Amino acid sequence: xxxxxxxxxxxxxxxxxxxxxxxxxxxxxxxxxxxxxxxxxxxxxxxxxxxxxxxxxxxxxxxxxxxxxxxxxxxxxxxxxxxxxxxxxxxxxxxxxxxxxxxxxxxxxxxxxxxxxxxxxxxxxxxxxxxxxxxxxxxxxxxxxxxxxxxxxxxxxxxxxxxxxxxxxxxxxxxxxxxxxxxxxxxxxxxxxxxxxxxxxxxxxxxxxxxxxxxxxxxxxxxxxxxxxxxxxxxxxxxxxxxxxxxxxxxxxxxxxxxxxxxxxxxxxxxxxxxxxxxxx
Length: 281
What we know:
Blueprint: E1 9-21, E2 25-35, H1 38-46, E3 64-67, H2 71-88, E4 104-107, H3 109-116, E5 126-128, H4 136-149, E6 158-161, H5 170-185, H6 190-193, E7 194-199, E8 202-207, H7 209-214, E9 217-220, E10 226-229, H8 233-241, E11 245-248
Antiparallel strand pairs: 1-2, 1-3, 2-4, 3-5, 6-11, 7-8, 9-10
């Protein structure tokens, strides 16, 4: 299964609000931004109330994205291009917000493709395409389905820290630390923690009692009352979605290092190390 994994870079897509400009023709609002994880950032934006965005008319082919390691400088370059275009058009700015914080610009499609969305060669940018609209929940469902469908092949994999582990706090950090600690102590893998199952015709996972108890945590309600909760699939999804955890092969760490002898060389026994300074009595 192929996932639309996140990547660092910049992105651009039209959010609607079409209207006519006497000189420029049909203009609309365009969102331009940057992120260390473009997929997740767009997914979050699509869940927000973003101006007049009609999500039903938006598809993945409408999203422009470039992978760029230095995404901050890439965004600065796009802003320079926007300012140059504004100057050509005799305008102070093309931003629809005076404070410029929302990074939404009034542009024609032709202006985007001929003036703004061009390769940033000095930063080694590369165009990226999505196979579908970014959606955090959908990709987590696919990841869980992939584990279920390939359970035998992946049965030796483990739950491990995700790249956002350091952002976990409180009960989330507590349950993740407990799971990873007990997983290591008892040498457990996902076959000890889940079993593959099917719900409503879709592949998923069932959390076994062992993992439920390992990830037990204190849930605090709005009244400040704490209750113990067993770790469930919704918790697993939440931790995956926020990249607090990941599932994959665990790096092997050896306590003892062995020395490899080159072919044809016989090992004559332990090496004797002699002091280089004479002993003075």
